[in-house]
Amino acid sequence: MKIERIELGLLRVPLKTPFKTALRTIDAVEDVVVRVHTDTGHIGHGEAAPTAVITGETRGSIIAAIDQVIGPRITGMEVADLNRILQVIHTSAERNTSAKAAVEIAVYDLWAQLYGAPLYRMLGGGDPVITTDITISVDYIDKMVADSLAAIDRGFESLKIKVGKEIGVDIERVKAIYAAVEGRARLRLDANQGWNAKQAVWAIRALEDAGVELELVEQPVRARDIEGMRYVTERVHTPIMADESVFGPAEVIDLLRMRAADIVNIKLMKTGGISNAIRVADIAALHGVECMIGCMIESSISVAAAVHVAVAKADIIRKVDLDGPSLAQYDPVDGGVTFNESEISIGDAPGLGIREIRGLQPLTA
Ligand SMILES: C[C@H](N)C(=O)N[C@@H](CCC(=O)O)C(=O)O
Ligand SMILES: [Mg+2]
């Protein structure tokens, strides 16, 4: 099975409600889809989310990186030579992690198809059913309480509450949600870099003192402020999770050596795909640190790949934030992984199992 050409498309799926964080507001999945064609007629699927505020990538930069840099280098290569292809993808450019992720995911999809097995089995196997949390956007307090209760009605038992705006209001937001859902859902907070280190310690201690039980607080301070991450981690009881501070293996080694977080959030769009996601998980495990697997605003193409990784690395990846498809108005993918609110399950189809993507706008051939 040889790679013949790479086709790019644009996918737009409106969200049920605008997704609001301390970093941005967005109302649709607007991702670049990769279809890697082979001489056997098999097609591998991948997806890249342009999240400029986190990875620095835009739709244009992703298209250019794949079309002009990564694509031409892997064309003609044998899918069976997976490790060589991965090396070419990762040495073809610095950064551009979402562009690399999209191509890597498509190549892994083909590699598993080549051997006729679902991808998670090729990655080591596991129980093909997992449970995700859902994100509650930062908003007015009453709206966040109502959204949290609606999520519980949909069957979600774990809520990821976005904060990181007006710190005093953040504390009130979390107290109000906790009072409304206590005993019915676990709460995780994600400040998306919105606080500084002293503010974070103050806010988290205020919540601890008020008896609010939090499973974790994600990325309280600026991505580059690793000292700040350590400052917060050392001073609060609540576990602190690194998200934007950690992209790939090198950052996770530095961060964990400094003991600057208790948990690591792995995202394929930050690691550059599956191979480094597995490395990050293994490095975290060596440090005795557990991981979450998360996503950007992505559809069920790239999130499916993250699900396969989550299943295969379930011993280390103990928390799941793969709610992209649940936030979207519909699932544009036929086949693949089944996203049924909080429950996500993988079938027996080879690779990612994607048969068709509805509404894909072709870009190049
Ligand atoms: C969608 C997921 N639950 C999430 O919150 N992901 C990111 C933000 C993604 C984005 O802005 O696209 C996170 O910070 O964890
Ligand atoms: Mg986050």
UniProtKB/TrEMBL annotation:
The active site is formed by 162, 267
One annotated GO biological process: peptide metabolic process
Q: Which positions bind Mg(2+)? A: 190, 218, 243
Which cofactors are required for activity? Mg(2+)
Q: How is the cofactor bound?
A: Binds 1 Mg(2+) ion per subunit.
Q: What is its EC number?
A: 5.1.1.-
One Gene Ontology MF term? racemase and epimerase activity, acting on amino acids and derivatives
Report residues binding substrate: 24, 135, 160, 295, 297, 321, 323
Query: What SUPFAM superfamilies does this protein's entry cite?
Result: Enolase C-terminal domain-like, Enolase N-terminal domain-like
Query: What is its EC class?
Result: isomerase
* Domain Mandelate racemase/muconate lactonizing enzyme C-terminal as annotated: residue spans: 141-239
Q: Which InterPro entries match?
A: Dipeptide_epimerase, Enolase-like_C_sf, Enolase-like_N, Enolase_C-like, Mandelate_racemase_C, Mandelate_racemase_N_dom
Flavoprotein in keyword set? no
CDD domains xrefs: L-Ala-DL-Glu_epimerase
Similarity comment text for this entry: Belongs to the mandelate racemase/muconate lactonizing enzyme family.
Protein name as it appears in the record: Dipeptide epimerase
Source organism of the structure = Luteimonas yindakuii
Organism ancestry: Bacteria, Pseudomonadati, Pseudomonadota, Gammaproteobacteria, Lysobacterales
